[in-house]
Design goal:
single chain; mainly alpha; elongated
């Protein structure tokens, strides 16, 4: 009997120890789980603190260009919201936002339309005359994306001095560069305020030379003919001479002749010219080739 009692006592002791171990294990698991939850909460809290407002805005805008190839009404509204937020940040002289935008624009891996939008935003915030230095340097980079260079020219005045800007644009027009760069340079020249001090006879001679060159692209020729309209009040003799050459040159296309005739007839008091007629097909070929 004594032996049985001892065994029962030992069994009870073992059972108690096991219960204590289980309780201890549950407690340890509870402590461990609580610690993990606290660590995760701290991690997410830090993440929210470290991810800045400009990061969130730029990420949303980037995703808009990366994943929404066809941007419809909702997409445009959401995109506009993020653009306005970014404009507000830049107006507050947010240096982090400025640096992040710079890094995105100079990153060749980024979506080009996203970068074009950022350049346009900078133009709105800083004003046309306040081009960032890195964008000026980008224009001189022969390996740069020409589409972005064209957007920079469209968004900023390259030099605060309009005479220097004019020389810069004509230099691009005369060089072997991308067509979009030439077209944006012509648009920029049309926007020059002080044309009297910025335009010269040498420039109008260059315009005539390019227009009358048979190898000149149709869109480039048309843009330069329209630019002659800005030169005409300053250099009427030279402008009229070039426009009449276009009109009389049998090798110049009909569409260019129509544009030239329209400008000439605005200034000629007498002897108005009759513009040639062009078919729908000729108009279509002119702009698509």
């Amino acid at each position: 009997m004594l032996k049985i009692k001892k065994r029962l006592v030992n069994l009870k002791s073992v059972i108690l120890k096991l219960k204590k171990k289980k309780t201890s294990l549950k407690f340890k698991i509870l402590i461990g789980a609580s610690s993990l939850i606290i660590i995760l909460m701290i991690y997410f809290s830090l993440s929210l603190i470290l991810v800045s407002r400009e990061d969130i805005v730029l990420a949303k805008l980037r995703n808009s260009y990366h994943f929404e190839l066809s941007c419809h009404e909702n997409c445009r509204l959401n995109r506009e919201k993020e653009i306005n937020k970014l404009i507000d940040l830049l107006k507050q002289e947010n240096k982090k936002a400025e640096e992040k935008i710079k890094n995105i624009i100079l990153n060749k891996e980024e979506e080009i339309e996203f970068k074009r939008e950022l350049i346009k935003i900078l133009g709105k915030v800083y004003g046309r005359e306040n081009i960032p230095e890195y964008l000026k340097l980008y224009l001189e980079d022969t390996t740069a994306e020409t589409t972005l260079q064209a957007t920079i020219i469209n968004s900023f005045t390259i030099e605060k001095n309009e005479e220097l800007s004019t020389k810069y644009y004509f230099n691009l027009i005369d060089r072997e560069v991308d067509l979009n760069l030439k077209l944006e340079s012509i648009n920029a020249l049309s926007n020059i305020q002080n044309k009297k001090n910025s335009f010269s006879k040498a420039q109008i001679e260059l315009i005539g030379k390019i227009i009358l060159n048979q190898k000149t692209n149709n869109k480039l020729r048309a843009s330069l003919i329209f630019l002659l309209n800005d030169f005409y009040p300053l250099f009427p003799i030279e402008a009229q001479k070039i426009l009449k050459q276009i009109y009389n040159d049998k090798d110049i296309d009909k569409i260019s002749k129509i544009f030239a005739t329209d400008i000439l007839n605005r200034y000629l008091k007498n002897n108005k010219l009759t513009a040639p007629e062009a078919s729908h097909e000729e108009w279509s070929n002119y702009y698509n080739n």
